[in-house]
Amino acid sequence: MTQNLTFRAGIVSVLLFVTFVLAWHLATRGTGAVQQMSPEYAKLMGLTATQGKSAMPGPLEVGAKLWEHVSDPFYDKGPNDKGVGIQIAYSIGRVLIGYGLAVLFAIPIGFVIGMSPLMYRALDPFIQVLKPISPLAWMPLALYTIKDSNLSSIFVIFICSLWPTLINTAFGVAQVRKEWLNVARTLEVGTLRRAFTVILPAAAPTILTGMRISIGIAWLVIVAAEMLVGGTGIGYFVWNEWNNLSIVNVIVAIVTIGVIGMILDMILAKATKLVTFPE
Amino acid sequence: MSTFDNPFDPSRPLNRAGCACGRHASEAEHARDPAVHLQCSPVESEDKRYESVVASAVLRAIFPQDVSRRAFLQSVGASTALAAVSQFFPLGTATDLFAQSGPVEKKDLKVGFIPITCATPIIMAKPMGFYEKHGLNVEVIKTAGWAVIRDKTINKEYDAAHMLSPMPIAITMGIGSNPIPYTMPAVENINGQAITLSIKHKDKRDPKSWKGFKFAVPFDYSMHNYLLRYYLAEHGIDPDQDVQIRAVPPPEMVANLRADNIDGFLGPDPMNQRAVFDGVGFIHILSKEIWDGHPCCAFAASKEFVTGMPKTYAALLKSIIDATAFAHKAENRKQIAEAIAPANYINQPVTVLEQILTGTYADGLGTVKTDPNRVDFDPFPWQSFAVWIMTQMKRWGQIKGDVDYKGVAEQVFLATDTAKLMTEVGMTPPKATTKSFSVMGKAFDPEKPEDYLGSFKIKRAS
User: Fold this and answer.
1) Which of A266, A99, A107 lies closest to A171, judged by CA?
2) SS3 state of residue B444
3) What is the CATH number of the domain that holds A110?
4) What pLDDT, in 10s, does the model give residues B326-342?
């Protein structure tokens, strides 16, 4: 039955995709009104003005461009023009460092907060204020104080992906069933051992859910940060193509960002499954 | 007078219209006149350029006024003048010093730029090998916006950068950031901007009908902002009350114009031509119609870099001067358009860049226009430009109180090369190199900035 369900869902997905692409194709096929102009004037103008071509590219154009990028992802034509593969590698590198630091920081702190109701209440206002700040708001401050654009982007990822993991860890730790803790206490298990053998496994699914939210945020943030700072990365690629008003390339980048984000999420979803236990 | 012009030519044109001597309506008519063939011909060889740049600077220092320079040259003749000047100023030595290519302190440099045609000299120097020629390995790095380029230069991620010419002044004075001594050893381009309006406003050519418009300029501290405000105010529109002016990064200008978020912009090329190319806007006027020969973007470096690595700085500046001189020549423009168009540099269609650089362009309303001076390249940082910029900063309330116009101009707009080289050979550098000019027909006297400021009806400064 589940096999059957997956199969049917797959068919619906494909159908939706085909309908979407077809609608897109039809919507962008048309040509707009064209003004009369002399040939030498027309030579100086773009296709939108001369042939009334839609400024929005069709799916075929995007597909061709996507293929072009996929078939040569690692070219390097100087510091401002690198292949999509290299740009993605830069972005993933930054995300992993920033996110890794955030996790290393968030889990121990989350543990402390979760195990101590006093700290939970004391730190709560700070967390609530810092949590909703947009990455772009951090950027000027980071650039000014850190004085290095690469470290600034990593810092911004760190500060933005910190909170979901921190909050989820604290929550997971605080919600460990009292019975288990009592059992541990009756058996006279030490604090450290209790933390690692009882609380950590019990809270692991919640912690990993937090980490999964965090990686999603980190990936969201990197694009914005790189658009602002420039240089390398997929965000810079989007900005550079926007500068050229090349919507085709921007769409290609959007698709790529989506796919990578999905892969990152899938990896953590798998990890969550590994630590989930039946009660 | 442009830095690349022969300084010993008494009949070099002082303005761009008409012929060289100003007595004839056109260059062709001038050529037919036998009397003009008597003077010596200008130096054209590439090797002689440093000599002529140095000579030009020296002569300008001796005769700050074009009129007296002419009178002197006309009365004694160019060769006598050259001999006379060489006697008390060793032109040869100065040129050697300037052209000397000793080992540089730092070979690998990073120079930031914004992808607009103003940055042409900085960008083209890379693909066309001007940096290499002077023993430098320069990476030119594209940057997303003016605030970022400022921060990255202050952070020393860049050794030098492309900036808007008011920015080094603002940084030095500490407006919009902490005061850091900044220098601007060279202007990159003059002219080359335009007011572009949305195509739906094609019948509203009179600025008086622009009340309620939303305009974009690239940055608060930009010539674009000051020129647009000047232009509007001259037509009786208060730029703060009657219209809205907002800072929008150049790449976003065309997208915003298409989305109807703004009614127009005074922006850098290629955005003006790109708006025309995509059929969303038309070029109302070129910025040269507001002030012919206005500076726009600049090559800037921190004072620390200039004094800490003098040889590197000299080599870098020489590359820029070389590239600027190359870009100054109309016949090289097509080649340059092709060199800077790829994604690694400006990332725009070659057609668009060619129209901007050659000056034969579509105006967006169905006409092909020709103006070879649409954009030009001239590196000399006239200090009077800085004074004008400061009058406008004060006019619109960006700076308050008393301004040391002359002091800041001298500190930031370096005629350093000249001044430094002159000091090295034991001479006293000239105090200031200023020239007067007029903006929309109104003369500007750099000696009396406060009077100039007082003469405006629409202003914020009290």
Assistant:
1) A107
2) strand
3) 1.10.3720.10
4) 788 888 888 888 888 88
Considering only the beta carbons, identify the residue of A41, A143, A227 that sits closest to B151: A143
Proportion of chain A above pLDDT 70, given as a percent: 93
Q: Cα dist. A275→A82, A181, A204, A268, B215 in Å? A: 39, 19, 6, 11, 57
- pLDDT tens, A164-190? 899 889 888 888 888 888 888 888 888
CB contact (8 A) between residue B115 and residue A44 = no
Nearest by CB to B277, from A38, A49, A231: name it.
Answer: A49
| CB contacts, 8 Å: B145 with chain A | 228
A114 and A8 assigned to the same domain? no
pLDDT of residue A104: 93
Domain B193-289+359-366 part of CATH 3.40.50.2000: no
The ipTM (two decimal places) reads 0.71
pLDDT for the residue numbered B37 = 43
Domain borders along chain B are 27-99, 108-190+295-353+375-454, 193-289+359-366
Residue in A43, A46, A243 closest to B115 by CB = A243
Whether residue B56 contacts residue B5, with contact meaning beta carbons closer than 8 Å, is answered with yes
| Helices first, then strands: H and E counts in chain A | 13, 0
Per-residue pLDDT of B115-130, as tens digits, reads 888 888 888 888 888 8
CA neighbor of B381 nearest in space, from B462, B321, B439, B447: B321
Which CATH topology does B108-190+295-353+375-454 take? Answer: D-Maltodextrin-Binding Protein; domain 2 (3.40.190)
- Joined together, the tokens standing for residue A13 give 């997905």
pTM of the complete model: 0.73
Nearest chain B residue to A37 by CA: give it: B366
Task: From chain A, pick out residues whose CB is under 8 angstroms from the CB of B152.
Answer: 143, 149
Provide, as residue numbers in chain A, all residues whose Cβ is less than 8 Å from the Cβ of B248. none
Candidates B139, B368, B371, partner chain A, best to mutate (most A CBs within 10 A): B368
Residue B381 pLDDT exceeds 80: no
Please name the residues in contact with A262: beta carbons below 8 A apart, sequence gap of 6 or more.
none
User: Who has greater pLDDT, A51 or B199?
Assistant: B199
Q: Is the pLDDT of residue A107 over 50?
A: yes
Contacts of B140 in chain A (CB under 8 A): 79-80
